[in-house]
Design goal:
The structure holds 2 protein chains of 2 kinds. By secondary structure, chain A is of the alpha/beta class. Chain A contains 5 helices and 7 strands, in the order βαβαββααβαββ. Chain A starts with a strand and ends in a 6-residue tail after the last strand. Chain B has one domain: P-loop containing nucleotide triphosphate hydrolases (Rossmann fold, 3-Layer(aba) Sandwich), CATH 3.40.50.300. Classes of the chains: A alpha/beta, B alpha/beta.
Chain lengths: 176, 125
């Protein structure tokens, strides 16, 4: 099962993703895609680490393409946080070509779905502020939006998270 | 049928509208001549039309109301633009305000209002 959690910053999507994984039971791998650059990022990572501390998840930092992700053991669920960083890494660090989106992410996702029963992906809403960004930024927005739409089409469950509460766009009854 | 389709930028509104409704001619609010904005089967990027009307010193609400008066059916697609920090620039502030208010007005008149999220439609009305 593929679960996509979508929402603005600090809407509670990470905590919900962790709950979903815990409820699914079994071993969980947390895949962190944000490079720890700058104090902001370090603080966010520290906050997320403490949130996960007692949940017994394994953590894997992975900044490359999903296609190159290798699992060292068998997991029941994989929590990826977040799609936005996955896209940013690929776009801005040169190991991805914007023309490959969202195919590359999708291919990576399909590959993982063959290895892990449940994937829980966290992604971002950065599309509703009405700001006309510079070209590079709007390309980034577009790549995330496209990736989100493809993942949402493929997903069994799509949840928009608001104030820590779920709005189910798809598959509401499927989560434990 | 009067239809309003909203959602954040790049959420798949146009693709969805084309798949659901017979749209031969879709006008682009960001590019079309102002007076032709409502002459097609649908108007896309309505938020940009508002911006352009305001740049021309026109009152966007009056313009839109007047244009819709004679139409029995319309399909309007608009980005949701109100969820960022209040813009410092007064014009941008007013634009954002106008887009929000006019969408409320359109939603009241519409028989159907839909919102796209990651390409998935949700019927609000």
């Amino acid at each position: 099962m593929l679960v996509l959690l979508y929402g603005g910053s600090a809407c509670g999507k990470s905590a919900m993703a962790e709950d979903v994984c815990s409820n699914l039971g079994g071993e969980v791998l947390y895949v962190a895609t944000m490079r720890p650059w700058g104090t902001d990022a370090k603080e966010r990572i520290a906050r997320h680490r403490s949130l996960r501390a007692d949940k017994g998840f394994d953590t894997l930092e992975h900044y490359e393409s999903l296609q190159s992700l290798r699992l060292s053991k068998t997991y029941h669920a994989l929590l990826l946080e977040c799609v936005g960083n996955l896209v940013a890494n690929a776009l801005f660090e040169g190991h991805g070509d914007p023309r490959l989106f969202p195919d590359e992410v999708l291919a990576g996702t399909e590959r993982l779905l063959k290895q892990v029963p449940h994937l829980v992906f966290v992604t971002n809403d950065i599309f509703s502020d009405g700001v006309a960004y510079p070209k590079e930024t709007s390309l980034y927005q577009n790549c995330i939006a496209q990736t989100n739409r493809w993942l949402a089409r493929r997903a069994d469950v799509v949840v928009e998270v608001v104030c820590g509460l779920p709005i189910y766009h798809k598959g509401g009854g499927l989560l434990p | 049928m009067k239809i309003l389709i909203v959602g954040g930028a790049s959420q798949g509104k146009l693709e969805y509208a084309k798949s659901q409704y017979a749209l031969k001619q879709v006008m682009d609010g960001g590019l079309c001549p102002l007076e032709e904005a409502f002459s097609g089967d649908a108007l896309n990027r309505f938020h940009l039309l508002i911006h352009r009307l305001m740049e021309q010193g026109l009152e966007p609400c009056d313009f839109v109301e007047h244009a819709l008066e004679s139409l029995d059916s319309w399909v309007i697609l608009c980005d949701e633009v109100g969820s960022g920090v209040v813009p410092i620039d007064a014009f941008e502030r007013q634009w954002r305000e106008q887009v929000g208010r006019i969408c409320c007005l359109l939603a009241r008149r519409a028989e159907r209002v839909e919102r796209l999220c990651c390409g998935i439609p949700q019927r609000l009305k």
